[in-house]
Here is the input.
Amino acid sequence: MSNSRILIVEDEGIIAKDIQNTLNRSGYSVVGIASSGEEAIKKAMEIHPDLVLMDIVLKGAMDGVEAAEHIRDHFDIPVVYLTAYSDDTTLQRAKITEPFGYILKPFQEKELYTTIEMAIYKHTTQRKLKESEQWLATTLKSIGDALIATNVNKLITFMNPVAEALTGWKQEEAIGKPLKDVFKVINEKTGKQADDPVAKVLSEGVIVGLANHTLLIARDGTKRPVDDSGAPIRDDKGKIIGVVLVFRDITERKIAVEQLRASEERHRSVVDNINVGIALISRNMEILALNNQMKKWYPDIDISQKSICYKSFNKPSINDACLNCPVCITLNDGEVHESVLDRIADNKVRNYRVISSPLKDKKGKIIAAIEMIEDITDQKKAQEALQRSELKYRELVQNANSIILRMDSQGNVTFFNEFAQQFFGYTEDEILGKNVVGSIVPKTDSELRNLAAMIRDIGLNPEEYANNENENMRKDGGRIWVAWTNKAIYDKDGNIVEILCVGNDVTERKLLERQLLQALKMESIGTLAGGVAHDFNNLLMGILGNASLMLMNTDPADPNRNRLKSIEKQVENGSKLTSQLLGYARKGKYELKHINLNQLVKDTSELFSRTRKDISIYLELSPDLFVAEADKGQIEQVLWNLYVNAADAMPGGGDFILKTFNTDHKNMKGRLYVPKPGRYVVLAVTDTGVGMDKKIQQRIFDPFFTTKDMGRGTGLGLASAYGIIKGHDGYIDVESRKGEGATFSIYLPASEKKIAKAAKITEKLLKGTETVLLVDDEEIILDVGRDLLKAMGCRVITARDGREAVEMYQKNQDDIDIVILDMIMPNISGGDTYDRMKEIKPHIKVLLSSGYSIDGQATDILNRGCNGFIQKPFTINKLSAAIRQILDKKLIFRH
Here is the structure.
């Protein structure tokens, strides 16, 4: 007796209650009672009973048949009709709903029980069968292979979706059709219809497969390669009731097979055509396979004879494996091994590289070894040649007399040749990996150029710095100049990986260039200064001459006499200023003699010490100092200029050291000049003042350059000192740092030559009656000179240039006693004018007059026989004395 849950549908309450009691006695559970079709449907949906006992005739719009049909379709609940009606019409309507039982009232309790049990069993069995069919259908439709089922008449009974896709037929179209109409297969090679696998399955009852190279022709004519198998379908008694045909599209597999075959052919072609011998060696050392290269090397080996490798590959044959054979080692440990062997071939030693690698099965077991043999004789010779070449070029690079280094794009050193190590003072270990900035390249050079930024630019764009010169530094801090050639080294992608830098020391050349530039600058400034001094002396001559004339006619008691004397004094002061300019222009040397520089330093420094009590003066004078050949007055002027410069640098006092010593040109290296060979007397003047930077040092000797406030300096002191020392064929240096004082060093040539002193002349007015030819291109000089000469009692003839002077002298040579000749004139110079007049009268008496001093051109004219020299501006007394001494035949020099 089951405990099934039953819903009773009965519109008569008493009958329904009676049925419930009956069912309860039989062990069933009545889960509900409905009195109408609508209520029955609602309760069925809510409680889902195992079975419904349904009265056919019910009250309401829906009878039992309609309610049963709805419950069957929507809830799959078995229905058993329980009714008093058995007419044919009612039965026919009831059949349509496929009830699971039909009981007529009145009924026996046993009859009710039996009908209910049979209905529940039948429904359970049908549900299981249906689920099984659904599962089977789903499985068949879900498998990846195509599947067609037929009956024994070869009519199609089932097709899954894959079969539909391959044949082009839908299942509903194909069911009932002959298999040959849907599953059309032909032989791929012959094009003829393939054997029917179903017939063989039906006749023999075995599983049958299609022959190879079978094509399936789809409904639209598409041809696909397939393989299949047919199997019989048997009933529970083993009788064949149909055939199931399983097939699949093998297009991709065929493509893959073809690709594999082509790949194997390519690999076989590669293996057979490379210049490397390949052999497959078994664990027993038998030769299993050889490629073409091995066959060329060993044409006598027949692999079918199971030849042993060490016996076949060695000539003469040996009876045991080769020593350290890589194949033996690989077969033992399963690793790749390599060795190099030498063999005699064609009476020559050949070199071979042997590489062995394991061949393993799927489980990783070593089953053989692959031996690759490569003839590396030529490669080895090339490597040896390359090594020799690299060694040669490395020796060239290491022994080159040039700096050769490599750095990466960030400036880090990657190579540093031996010359570079010696040049900069770094060992290879010290410099490799370091950045050039801070090691061999200062961050800024002496001119404050940013060299660190330059190195960054070289790393980014070396082409712009293909040729470059910059200041470098040694390990000891010394600065040198190097000319670099920079070339980028690129990787395969075009990225800069390194910069090759080749450098040569150009410090001496840069020094010579700076010397030349300095010399040209000083020469041009000197020329300008000399010209200014010359013209200024001419102006002063006009003033001084007129003042002298006025003084001659002025009573000593006249109040204007002192003013005129003051004018003379101011002109003399102006003349001293031009003397400084002429000193700078190296046109002021006029009297050379032996001087004791030590004594000169003592005398001048003692006097200087009285003016600045807050400055301590220290003398370090060499007792065996060489004698210098110099103009004492001009050297004194140089010393005073240096003293004043030092005093200005120490406004609050300080130390002042004067040091003399001997040296020669060999000890004067590293200067902005190349000294002439010989011995020198040196005076070093050191102060502890404010010092100066490089920028000021570069201009310190320029005329009119001064760091003093307006009105406190002319800017000519050091300029004239420079000119005077250069005029003595000497040199002057300055060394200084801001805040660390300064040292001026003067180098004067040492000499033993003696120069006679100039004769002193009287300062009184000496009159005469001679005739004088006055030659000058300046109108003011002619006017004042004429008046001065007339005041002396002379008769005067004037000429405005050299051409006019020669003409006047030609006409009046017998009357002219002396010629006062300007040295600098347009058209014809003073020197040429003198030479032409001397041709007219060899014993002509000439007094040279110039705003320049006696040095240079004037000395040349004097050496050609000129009688004397007087420097503008001059007083009437000096002029009269010079004329009288020439006319009295005494060679004089006046300044």
User: Anything to note?
Assistant: Residues 494 and 881 are 88 Å apart (CA to CA). DSSP finds 28 helices and 35 strands in the chain. Confidence is low (pLDDT under 50) at residues 584-590, 754-762, 890-895.
